[in-house]
Amino acid sequence: MATVHDVASEVVEQLGDMTAMKLEKLVYYCQGWHLARHNRALFGETIEAWRQGPVVPELYEHHRRQYTISQWPWGNGTELTATELATVRWVTNEYGSFSAVELSRMTHHELPWKAARGPLPDSANSSAPVSTEIMRSYYSRQIADTETAVALATANAALEGVEFDEEWQDRLRDVASGTISADELIAAEIARISGD
């Protein structure tokens, strides 16, 4: 298994200079997508649900008080297996163009960070661990077949105290199968609620 430092080293190698905050979020997404695609962790270090989003304390200790990261000498991307390297490269391709602030906002809207923080407001400090099982489930839902995606979405919503009835599950199937876009579903729901 890779270390978080090996992953960070490869992220910096792929994208070049970036903020410390962006590095933290990209490493988080590497873990989430590796869990979803391979059903195992990419690295063993704990991710915590900090105020600015997910943070790996072992990384933070090395970049503390640094704004920009241009290299990561504490790890080595050549230690990654081909499968691990493929995950890192996919994440840097998919998420690398987002700013640190955009990535942080994205994580704030996703279940793994929110579940770890529970009822805490976004502005509160926290060192609660982000569950790798919730990460695996959440990101797996993004790549699952239609029925699995609906089942996972329904289960994740139930974790947040929301129950999807059969009609909503049918709407989710439409989105998962590409019949309608998520934006179209949201617009239709807003129109339904507002009586338009």
Please characterize this protein's 3D structure.
It contains 10 helices and 4 strands. Helix 1 (4-15) packs across helix 2 (20-38), helix 1 packs across helix 4 (82-95) and helix 8 packs across helix 9. Helices cover 60% and strands 5% of the residues. The mean pLDDT is 92. The strands form 2 sheets. Strands 1-4 form a two-stranded antiparallel sheet. The protein has helices at residues 4-15, 20-38, 57-63, 82-95, 100-108, 111-117, 132-143, 146-159, 166-176, 182-194, and strands at residues 18-19, 48-50, 53-55, 68-69. It has 196 residues and is mainly α. A hairpin with a 2-residue loop joins strand 2 (48-50) and strand 3 (53-55). The longest helix is centred in the first third of the chain and has 19 residues, at 20-38.
